[in-house]
UniProtKB/TrEMBL annotation:
The chain crosses the membrane at residues 30-52, 64-83, 103-136. InterPro entries: EamA_dom (IPR000620), EmrE-like (IPR037185). Belongs to the EamA transporter family. This is EamA family transporter. It comes from the Bacteria. Pfam families: EamA. Keywords: Membrane, Transmembrane, Transmembrane helix. It comes from Hydrogeniiclostridium mannosilyticum. Signal peptide: none annotated.
Length: 137
């Protein structure tokens, strides 16, 4: 089931790029990011209340709060940089570079989370990195 959700995520991420590129015409990238963030905020909290998940807030540990906050800051920075890159460059070039975050994620997961790396993961990461370079050159 995780694969279905991951595939849907990829489809919506692709749609996000196209919609953002069209919608940002004549709009400051920081303002566009702020508008997107408000929409995401309303949608996320709507899902929390729709599913009754708000009852879990009291059970969140201080450590989890710290890491979720840091994750939120990283997300914000990512979105700000992404929208600025999208405003300055072609969507077909910005998106592959942004998606190269997969290679960085695998490396960070190995270093900090001690996740195993197989030869398939190394080969796949190398192919992703090579493919990204081919697309942008």
């Amino acid at each position: 089931m995780w694969f279905v959700f991951a595939l849907l995520s990829a489809c919506f991420a692709a749609l996000t790029t196209i919609l953002a590129k069209v919608g940002m015409d004549g709009v400051n990238s920081n303002l566009a990011t702020a508008i997107r963030t408000v929409v995401v905020l309303v949608m996320a909290w709507g899902m929390v209340f729709l599913t009754g998940a708000q009852q879990g807030i009291s059970g969140i540990t201080p450590r989890a709060w710290i890491f979720l906050t840091l994750s939120g800051l990283a997300t914000g920075a990512s979105w700000l940089f992404y929208y600025r890159a999208l405003q300055l460059g072609d969507a077909s070039l910005v998106a592959p570079v942004d998606k190269s975050s997969l290679v960085i994620t695998i490396l960070l997961a190995f270093i900090f989370l001690h996740e195993a790396i197989s030869w398939k993961v190394i080969l796949g990461s190398a192919l992703i990195a090579a493919g990204t370079f081919v697309l942008i050159l």
